[in-house]
Write a structure and sequence with these properties.
Blueprint (H helix, E strand, L loop, with lengths): L1 H4 L6 E2 L14 E2 L10 H5 L12 H14 L5 H6 L3 E2 L5 H9 L4 H5 L2 H17 L4 E5 L8 H6 L15 H24 L4 E5 L1 H10 L54 H15 L8
Parallel strand pairs: 1-2, 3-4, 4-5
Helix pairs in contact: 7-9, 10-11
GO molecular function: hydrolase activity, acting on ester bonds
Pfam families: Lipase_GDSL (PF00657)
Organism: Populus euphratica (Euphrates poplar)
């Protein structure tokens, strides 16, 4: 939706042979659903399993470099120089799987420096390939998501903030984001000729919560999945969206959460608008 407003095509998936990267108007998406920042073997050594895929950030970088070396046009260097690179959001799944395998917040917190270093290394590799504008997004306030609200249900009212989000988990997300912001500042100093911008997904998401009613969301279902079933948050890990018999709400545009993990298109639209307004002026793009 935001691509249309900006008169830009949606980046094509790397493995789709029909995708294009030409004249700076196309774009390629190297993301892998369910992937992590840390390699699967690193997580496995900590008894954390990626139940979705064995691919990680390193695979996505390998695909990108392979694409530039084999598929990109003869003007590839010029196109890379004038393109915008999004490195992330990545790292959230590392933490999702850790919590899923019953790691405590403190145990999961120990992953953060390694995750942030993996992101830093990725940014440096992208810059080494010629990128001159890079956005590095942070993590969401995961304590507001149905998947976590249904998994961690403390009876202590003090465990929740004014939006009924879990303070401990949002504090954890903020820890990741602060470390990432410090890393972005270091990268800016090390690469003064490259524009590197932090993408504040946390604030973008919270702007929806803070303005939910005026944005048209039903405040009674703000923490309920549109597609899901079970419990106070309409979410169950054992009967997730897409499973046989799991219902879908009739009014997804009034919901923030689509399936307990991802947002609805309406929520993503508002996030995108916030992020574009915040990030675009910092990119110093010429008309």
């Amino acid at each position: 939706m935001q691509h249309a407003r900006l008169n830009l095509p949606i980046p094509g998936a790397n493995l789709n042979s029909a995708r294009k990267f030409s004249g700076g108007r196309g774009g390629v998406n190297f993301a892998v659903a369910g992937s992590t920042a840390l390699p699967a073997e690193v997580l496995s050594s900590k008894n954390i399993m990626n139940i979705v895929t064995n691919e990680s950030l390193s695979t996505q970088l390998e695909w990108m470099f392979s694409y530039f070396n084999t598929t990109c046009s003869k003007d590839c260097a010029k196109e890379i120089n004038s393109s915008l690179f999004m490195v992330g959001e990545i790292g959230g799944n590392d933490y999702n799987y850790a919590f899923m395998f019953s790691k405590t917040t403190e145990e999961t917190k120990a992953l953060v420096p390694g995750v942030v270093k993996a992101i830093k290394d990725a940014v440096e590799k992208v810059i080494g390939y010629g990128a001159r504008r890079v956005v590095v997004p942070g993590n969401f306030p995961i304590g507001c998501f149905p998947v976590y609200l249904s998994q961690f249900e403390p009876n202590d009212a003090d465990a929740y903030d004014e939006f009924h989000c879990l303070k401990e988990l949002n504090s954890f997300a903020s820890y990741h984001n602060e470390l990432l912001k410090q890393t972005v500042d270091e990268l800016k100093k090390n690469y003064p000729d490259v524009i590197i911008v932090y993408g504040d997904y946390y604030k973008a998401f919270m702007s929806i919560y803070q303005n939910a009613q005026s944005l048209g969301f039903d405040t009674k279902t703000i923490q309920k999945a549109c597609c899901g079933t079970g419990g106070d948050h309409n979410f169950s890990l054992w009967r997730m969206c897409g499973a046989l018999g799991v219902p879908v709400c009739p009014n997804p545009d009034q919901h923030i959460s689509w399936d307990g993990i991802h947002l609805t298109q309406k929520a993503y639209q508002h996030m995108a608008e916030w992020l574009i307004n915040d990030i675009f002026p910092k990119l110093q793009c010429s008309a």
